[in-house]
Amino acid sequence: MGRKMLGSVCIYLITFILSLLNYHLINRCSLKRFKKNGFCESVFKFIYAFGPITLLYGLRYRVGIDYENYLWYSRVYLQESNINIPVEIGYEWLNKIANALFRNEYAIFVLSGLVIYGILFFILQNYKKKIDVVLAFYIFLMTYFAASCNIVRQMMAALILLYACQYIIDGNWKKYIICILIACCFHITIIFCVLFWLVRFVKVRHFKIAMILTSFVILIFPQPIYLVANLLGYGHLLNKNTSSGISGLGFLLYLVPILIIIEFFKKSLLKKDCRYNYYVALMYVQIPLQVGAYIIGNIDRFTVYSSIIQVILVPEIVAAIEDSKRRKTLRLIIILWYLFYFMVMTVWRDGHSIIPYQTWIFK
After folding, report:
1. CA-to-CA distance for 352 and 43, rounded, in angstroms?
2. CB of 204 within 8 A of CB of 277?
3. Are residues 282 and 158 in contact, defined by beta-carbon separation less than 8 angstroms?
4. Which of 79, 84, 179, 259 has a C-alpha 20 to 30 A away from that of 206?
């Protein structure tokens, strides 16, 4: 491990630990000064706990594969150019607000960090009486911090979806659709998540089997998909290098373990509320999407809409276990697993190009 890599890993891990520790401490404290003002209390908690990670995210420079694209968007808006940029209205307005307030091309990264971690904070505060929100925050950092440096707009949309998933549990389709429409303001591809609602109308076991069988069909019989795509004029989206697609099956190495953990320990949660089986089922949507990358390039990016559910589902499963020794053992397993995931996917493979870490303050 080189000096730059080691230094970057230390920066990330120290910042993660600081934010997690602060979040743990602030949730244990009674803030009497803000007792009559819940909004000010929430702002203080966010700054204290989520401030370090938001700054780390916002002050980055050339960190992330798509960094230059987002920087270019910011420059175009800053210069008030007439160039047509293919971004959704929500992100367009974020750029306009960032440039209006700061007149700085890097301000959009700070504002994006505030939006991403602001939404996450809001979601976790809604769940703080039900789950270990620090564990949920940890899972997000280990799994999605690196990804959020690239799929910025998609991560905003995915977090809105994560909030909306409670309405699948409650059966409130109107609020679910409203949340999806809001999420579309940041990434239009999330519109396909309207279909997640259908999980309420099928047997969960059948749904999971269907997802697995669909994956095998895509893998074994890709020719019909190639044919239909070419006939409809979408041949340019196909992955011509099938060998690179096959290598993508390595996703099973990090998807299967967490699915095994969920399936093995979900019983206590489902005894308390069987509707959480919908969340378990939606986790399986990742499999055909990941296999689909064998044929259609970048379709695996859609998996974030399915996998983001683990941020809430896994802590829910932990909280539902009554035996304290078993609960602590599971928590330890989860902590070690996600740390391993971060070290392999983010550090060793550096799949999102967030190493070395640099900041535009000292560029």
Report:
1. 30
2. yes
3. no
4. 179
| 113 touches 54 (CB < 8 A) | yes
* CA pair distance 285, 269, nearest whole angstrom: 21
For 284, the 3-state DSSP assignment is coil
Instruction: Kindly give the confidence (pLDDT) of every residue in the chain, 363 residues in length, as a single tens digit, with 9 standing for 90 and above.
Output: 578 788 899 999 999 999 999 999 998 887 666 666 678 888 999 999 999 999 999 999 999 999 999 999 888 888 876 677 778 899 999 999 998 888 889 999 999 999 999 999 999 999 998 999 999 999 999 999 999 999 999 999 999 999 999 999 999 999 999 999 999 999 999 999 999 999 999 899 999 999 999 888 888 877 777 776 677 665 666 665 544 444 455 667 778 899 999 999 999 999 999 999 999 999 999 988 888 777 776 777 789 999 999 999 999 999 999 999 999 999 999 999 999 999 988 888 877 889 999 998 876
Identify the three-state secondary structure at position 178: helix
Of 162, 159, 168, whose CA–CA distance to 199 is shortest? 168
| CA 9 – CA 29 distance, rounded (Å) | 30
pTM for the structure as a whole: 0.92
Distance (Å, whole) CA 189 – CA 180: 10
**Residue 296: strand pairing partners:** 238
Are the CB atoms for 137 and 124 separated by under 8 Å? yes
Residue 204 makes CB contacts below 8 A (sequence gap 6+) with 277, 278, 280, 281
Asked if residue 52 has a cis previous peptide bond (ω within 30° of 0), the answer is: no
Q: Provide the 3-class DSSP secondary structure of residue 296.
A: strand
CA distance 241 to 233: 19
CB-based burial label for 285 (10 Å; 0-12, 13-18, 19+) = buried
Which H or E element spans position 218?
helix 204-220
Phi, psi of 180 (to 5 degrees): -65, -40
**Hunting for tokens 């799949």 — which residue is that?**
351
269 near 169, Cβ under 8 Å?
A: no
Q: Which residues contact 237 (CB under 8 A, 6 or more apart)?
A: 229, 296, 297
Question: Exposure of 350 by Cβ count < 10 A (0-12 exposed, 13-18 middle, 19+ buried)?
Answer: middle
